[in-house]
Write a structure and sequence with these properties.
9 strands, 21% strand, single chain, globular, 9-stranded mixed beta sheet
Length: 259
């Protein structure tokens, strides 16, 4: 297997130590993988716990300023020489079998630039994070707290969330930034993440530029990962405002699609 860099950007994530332990037990001893963890100025005690885990296959970078999700991955990317680069959230558990499945698929399909796995909650419920198109109405529909309104647009929401993907490997337009298995060369070609996006929509923007550059993105439902999925944009006004600013920036860049 060709060497792989796994990039994790964290900010006080409560699950990262479980994520690291999973890599330490199931992946790092058996595969040529380097884990690069970029901390976005977390609490000092948290950073100390991270730095205590540093070793030959675990590299810790501690930032003094939080410049966002994409910035952290770009720093890790610029230090990477491996042919493959994984963007992995700090609350993801990656089974070894899923890792091997995705690595083998990319190795066998040079026209594919990125693969995204089936992402499930710890209880096995699928988190429908794949997208084929993006528009303003559907994003706000997902935020509405009114179940009656969501029920009225249930079919539309199901299409937006790609709930009919099934169990076939297939090309898609947008994969989630929670887990992206990428070719490093293509990522360098498109200059990594656009750091104007502090958080949210940086993954959609990256996928747009991959598609624009001729890269293919594939969904692999036979390579599941577990995601704890703390949706900060749904939990606080600050998180929601960051989400809205990123959404406006995204549609300003790529054109406004309301429906």
């Amino acid at each position: 297997m060709a060497p792989v860099t796994v990039s994790i950007v964290t900010y006080n994530s409560e699950h990262i130590f479980e994520t690291i332990k999973q890599f330490q037990t199931a992946i790092l001893p058996f595969y040529p993988v380097t884990l690069r963890i970029f901390d976005n100025h977390s609490a000092p005690a948290y950073v100390n716990r991270l730095q205590a885990l540093a070793g030959p296959q675990i590299v810790i970078t501690a930032a003094q300023v939080n410049q966002g999700f994409g910035h952290g991955h770009n720093v890790n990317l610029n230090q990477t020489t491996t042919p493959y680069f994984i963007c992995c959230n700090p609350d993801i558990l990656l089974p070894a079998a899923s890792f091997v499945t995705m690595a083998q698929f990319l190795a066998a399909n040079p026209q594919v630039s990125m693969v995204t796995p089936k992402i499930t909650a710890p209880d096995g419920q699928v988190q429908h994070l794949v997208r084929q198109h993006l528009d303003v109405f559907d994003y706000f529909l997902r935020f509405l707290p009114f179940k009656a309104v969501k029920h009225l647009f249930a079919k539309r929401l199901a299409r937006f969330e790609c709930r009919d993907l099934g169990e076939q490997r297939q090309p898609i337009q947008f994969g989630s930034g929670a887990f992206m298995f990428l070719r490093t060369e293509m990522l360098h070609q498109i200059h990594g993440f656009d750091q104007q996006f502090f958080m949210y929509f940086e993954d959609n923007d990256l996928c747009m530029r991959l598609n624009q550059a001729g890269g293919q993105i594939y969904y692999l439902p036979d390579a599941p990962v577990i995601h704890y999925y703390a949706r900060d944009s749904h939990k606080s006004l600050r998180g929601f405002m960051v989400f809205v600013r990123s959404m406006v920036r995204y549609f300003n860049k790529w054109g406004w699609h309301f429906f």
